[in-house]
Amino acid sequence: MKNILIGLLMMGSLFGQINNVLTISPTASETTLGNQSLEFRNPARNSLDTLDSKVNLSLTNVKWLGNIVDDMGFNYVEASNKKFDYSMLYFNYGEQKYADETGFVQGNFTPSTLLVGTSWGTKLPFGHVGVTGKIVNHTLHTEKINGVLADLGYYLNTKHFEFDVMISNLGLYFTEEVDAPTALNLGLSKSFQQGVDIYSQINLYDGYNTFGQGISYNIKGLMNVNAGYYSDSSHELTYSSFGFDINYDRYKFGFGYLFGDETHPLGNTLLLTLNLEI
Which of 28, 53, 106, 111 is the most buried (most CB within 10 A)? Predict the structure, then answer.
């Protein structure tokens, strides 16, 4: 790895990286649809498949910022059953060097972030509601940040569209150095009879916003072809994406690719996700 300290998405310090990890859309499907996290992360949607007794298991592996470093990435595991969803994300920032006050290199360390969450959702007469509880641990050499956060979600399906709203990352860290990245997330999606689904999502943070747009085409129930666009104008981060999901028996294989040249921090990023029904 290059001997530099690098912020996730080229933003902020190593302490600030913890907040950027919390805004990642970790699976290939949602990322290639323009980071449509509400379609997959809104806890209110957990109540849509309450009659399905199967456990849906999802595994994702991603090498991050491959144009800049060669040992940064994350692994994501998710299991869902009826109204409940359980997830764990482990982000490894790669090997870093630390030095004393004179600049003499004393050794190496590997900062990391662990995010563990549990979600629950239920149906009410006026729509669906849900909540997610998350525990966060961020390790930076001899210092650590721990926190407890929550997401509150609402979902409504009308004749013309599906509407999602979520307040994400409410809570606190047990330190005064970092504030939680609380955001208001709004999503709108629509399905067409031709097998086409269109998604839009805007995320409103303190002082800036991000936007994602995605489209998915279903081919005879065997394959979904996805394309998307994502923009974070405040941090000058924009990229397009492409991917597909292949359905076979109890398995779904998800592949995603983020476009960008060698100067783009997320260019040429490949995402692989395996979904399994047990």
Answer: 28
**Distance between terminal CA atoms of the chain?**
39
Q: Which has the closest alpha carbon to 111: 86, 137, 129?
A: 137
CA dihedral 123, 25, 55, 120 (to 10 degrees): -30
E strand intervals along the chain: 56-63, 73-81, 84-92, 96-99, 105-109, 112-124, 127-140, 143-157, 162-173, 183-191, 196-204, 209-219, 223-232, 237-248, 251-258, 269-277
Q: What's at 4, amino acid-wise?
A: I
Going 44 to 47 to 49 to 53, the CA torsion angle's sign is positive
Q: Cα 117 to the chain's mean position, in Å? A: 13
* Per-residue DSSP letter, 83: T
Give CA–CA dist 105/108, Å, rounded. Answer: 8
- At residue 128, φ and ψ (nearest 5 deg) are -120, 140
Give residues with Cβ within 8 angstroms of 25, minimum separation 6. 31, 35, 36, 37, 40, 41
pLDDT tens digits along 13-26: 555 566 778 888 88
Tell me the per-residue pLDDT of 130-157, one tens digit each, with 9 for 90 and over.
Answer: 999 999 998 876 678 899 999 999 999 9
